[in-house]
Amino acid sequence: MGQIIINAPTAWRWVSTVEKGEAHPDYVEVYELSVRDLGPYFAPLTFEGWLENYGAGKTKVQTKAKTWRLAFSYDAVDGDHAWSFAELSAALASAPRPAHRAKRLATLIEKAAAKRAITDKDRAKVEKQLAKVGAASTANFDEVKLLPDPGKALQAAEYVVANGVGLLQVHDAIFALPKLAGVFFEHSLLETVPDAVADASGLKYLHLANSSRLQALPESIGKCSALESIDASNCYWLARLPEAIGELAALKTLKLSSTALDALPDSIGRCSALETLELANEELVELPRSLGKIKSLEAIKLGARAHDHNAQWLKKALPKCKLTRSG
Predict the structure, then answer these.
(1) Distance (Å, whole) CA 148 – CA 141
(2) Which alpha helices (DSSP H) does 270-319 contain, by range?
(3) Domain end: 115, 134, 168, which one?
(4) Are residues 197 and 62 in the same domain?
């Protein structure tokens, strides 16, 4: 009997697939389930608990305090194995699915949805903050659920920053601000970036790190010709990049670690100014050979699978590029 280790986002995606037929960010609430509620979703694997590091690289399994890694025992393998979502799906897809549905999960999802509802109080809160921005070059908004049409406000704003968790909606007019150079919506609850991002002709920075519901970037992003930096790291539901990413000729930094990406579009090879590429995640294995055409690349960070699968040809194609293995 061996031990299977998966990370928490992989568990969320699998339970979502069982319950809903597809991955959906509502299922981040899986994190709150107990061993008894969570275990049946993974049969014939036996859920043992969450792994905790406790010194000298050793780990122990615990059944109360939840961590980022889940441990399962499995008769069909020997030794310890870290599984990606693809490997977990391959092993469990043909297994008989139990009728089990965790009643508490539905309640958790409903409560989370209720908290995300935008109220008149939320609108009044952001309008009050909007009035205080004035002619500042950086417009800071704290703990807001929406960014409305600014009207005549924010005309001097170069950077729009939404601090704290909770941003759900961004009005298209935000991206039409005349001096806009950067949006920083980290820790947001956005599921995608509005197509209107194409209106931000001077946009240089699009930072969305730790946006726990982000699933995709729009094709319209390819029209952001001035864009230099995209940070979507720790966006655990982000599963694809648009083909239009290859239109970003000014892009220098692309951070996509800890996402659900399992492939990159071949068009990425046209990002001729790219210098830093971070792709340390569990799902990605094969990289497009077009990456080897980007001679400007100075540093690439990959997860263990992608590194081991691609290191040889990457080093040959990009001898001056620093290649780092994570995990």
Answers:
(1) 12
(2) 304-317
(3) 115
(4) no
Measured distance CA(149)–CA(161) in Å, rounded: 15
Question: How many other CB atoms are found less than 10 A from the CB of residue 113?
Answer: 11
Which residues sit opposite 159 in a β-bridge?
Answer: 138, 182
Beta carbons of 165 and 186 less than 8 angstroms apart: no
Lowest mean pLDDT across 57-61, 141-145, 166-170: 57-61
- Strands 46-53, 69-74: pairing is antiparallel
Please count the structural domains in the chain.
2
Distances (CA, A) of 11 to 8, 110, 236, 309, 313: 5, 19, 11, 24, 32
SS3 292: helix
> CA-to-CA distance for 175 and 139, rounded, in angstroms?
13
Domain that holds residue 125: 117-326
DSSP state of 186: T
Residue 97 has pLDDT above 80, yes or no: no
The pLDDT of residue 61 is above 70: yes
Same domain, 137 and 164: yes
DSSP 51: E
Lookup result for tokens 């000014």: 250
